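Morning. Coffee machine broken again, so started the prediction first thing and wrote up yesterday's gels while waiting. Chain of 781 residues, entered below exactly as on the submission form.
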Amino acid sequence: MLARPSDPMFTGRAIFYAFPAGHGSLRTNEAVRHLSISTQAPTSFRGRRTSWLFTRRGGGFPAGLRLRGSRDLRLYALLTVLLLALGGVLAVPVASSAAEGDVGVEGPSHSGTGTPTGTKRATSSLWFNDGAWWGNLWDTASSDFHIFRFSAGTWVDTGVLTEPRANTHHDVLWDGTTLYVASYRFVNDGLPAEPNFPTTMRRYSYDPVKKTYSLLTSTNINNYRVEALTIDKDSTGRVWATWQQGNQIYLNVTATDGKTWGTPFAHPASLSNVSGDDTSAVIAFGPGKMGVMWSRQVGDSTDGMYWSYHVDGALNTDWTAPVAAVSGLRSSDDHMNLKWLDSSGGQVFAAVKTSFTSASQPLVQLLAFSGTTWSAYPIAAVSECPNRVIVLIDESTRMLRTFATYPKPGGTTNAGVCTSSGGAVYEKSTPLDNINFTTAKTVRIVDADQYVHNVASTKQNLNSAARGTANSGLLVLSDVNATSRYWHFYDPSSGGGSSDTTAPTLTATAPAAAATGVAVTANVTGSFSEEMDQSTVTSNTFTLTAGTTTVPATVTATVTATVTYNSTDKVATLDPSTDLAPGTTYTATIRGGSGGVKDVAGNAIASDRTWTFTTASAAGSTSETVTLTAIADSYVSSGATGTNYGTSTALWVDNSPVQVTYLKFDLSAYAGRTLESATLQLGSAENGSTGKQNVKLVADDSWTEGGITYNNRPAAGTSIGTLGPTATNTSYSVPLTVTGLAAELGQQLSLGLDTSSSDGLLLSSKEAGSAAAPRLVLTLR
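Came back before lunch.
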């Protein structure tokens, strides 16, 4: 039976004989066959894929055969005849060059649920944490939504449930320590909200060692099925949600615990009375505000996209009077996606859709809030037929990257068709400092045989150390509803930013190099400048020797020592299972080079790092002085309460805004010793201070350099030393009282520096270099 596929890519000399033909049938004793009679496929076919369906009689199951072209189709024909003689279904391998018809990567199936990435673009499906991308995806095996990890270009199911209900939409928020997943049953465009359908928010903790999430709480936001709902968290720890219900913009908010929801209420402004087809979105921006944007489509001059904000800590219903980000008849639709450039203060960006109909008018545009006024920048005109747009901010390249659905290109299935069913996903980008999409190149990033739609990504800014997304690259997720498949596009460099080629370094060791009087119960640790690949920290790369004898270090508990790696603190630990010998010099080695420890980007430390230390003699009567470098340091600021400064080369101590420095030292090697004296060594940077700074004990050692913020900072306790006044670029030694410090021997020690002075002090952190790093000098017996 002759079958000639109808796809336009087959025009020309690429003719196929296939059996059975499309929509034909096959008896149970017949084999699938196809044969190419042309080895000169036109360029438009090379790397393309086609498929046809048939039914196997007697077996009763449909089968599909997909063919991907190449320069020489005879090989594919031969492989097909050989492999399909086995009675199976063949997916012919992708050509080595990028397929012209398929752009992006096909992901897992979402059969069993529809539009899993949402439809209104206000929501997010992805987040970046612990050096990896994560997503909230449907699992076909268990028919529910799970947390998936994006690894080596594929999605890996973690098995952690986020929502058991099919046909739900979601908004995910990662705040640096906790994951929030809001799940709701949705109504279609223009339909009213329906009661008795709870919207649920689940909270999850994250274990950086096991790289797993665990459910903390599950609470209800409202009891309605709505068109769209989004969440965000303010600087006081309260989570806000917004949606449209009964032709009004509604809000709800938790207590400062981030989980106990109050009673939903309507936005107090009269302009928040909207049509049944309008939606809203919230966004935290700063410092210390929660904004809400909503569409208003009532068919008159008050149509537009409206903006109002709430100051953190004010009454729930105390919102500013709405202002129109854009206004006028047909100036709005119910599509919006919001981002905040936190480094700029109050600058907010919104990618929105209009309802204009003239070919030259903007159909999607970017609205930019300077902190006081809004400006509009066209992204694409009505004639380009864009739909469902999102915006992402790449902080490393200072680019605004927008993604939307446009008609599929020429030479593909359904080429040029303008439809709300989808098309292909394209990118348009522009510099943050010179916004202009009119000259921006439109780049196709996701395309498949069927319509692609509903592109989604993250609430976070990309490649931002302050947001915990350093070296994140870019990941967007979309949906091919006709085949129930996820598709994604991953750009590791994120729009021209260079990939990570920097070799990691060892920033601190414990015991310190040349340390003496080390407790025989001590562990050996090495702190790294960046996150390491845990699989490279092994018995081959981290060793301890005494004389000519090697102390084995493996990851199993059945041998004489264990090696572990904590990705949050970026610390490798060697833990001997028996005490070390007293009065003995040991050599610790962390190996570098091609066979050594590597960071998550595959960069190895330049060379072996070797250091020695000597354990205390059995008598323990001799005083020893040891110098320890901080294993973690950071500061927090009331001016940016959710921001982490762990990668900063400087440490601020100030009272306006309140800025507190935190230091952590590893004293685990000195259990059982007697502390005779202690001195904290610090170096000022470009700012000295006329005030005094207090050095205080911090009882809670659970904070991490990459995770501490003003919101989650541990409390400072008793003052044990005072610094100041200080000059610029000067070294200081601060004597510390021994009382209180002695109890910290054998464990980690956390210190906090605060002040009542508004004349801020700038100190050097360990990221400024080993010579400038904070140090603790101990005299022990």
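The chain has one helix and 53 strands. Going to sketch it on the whiteboard this afternoon.
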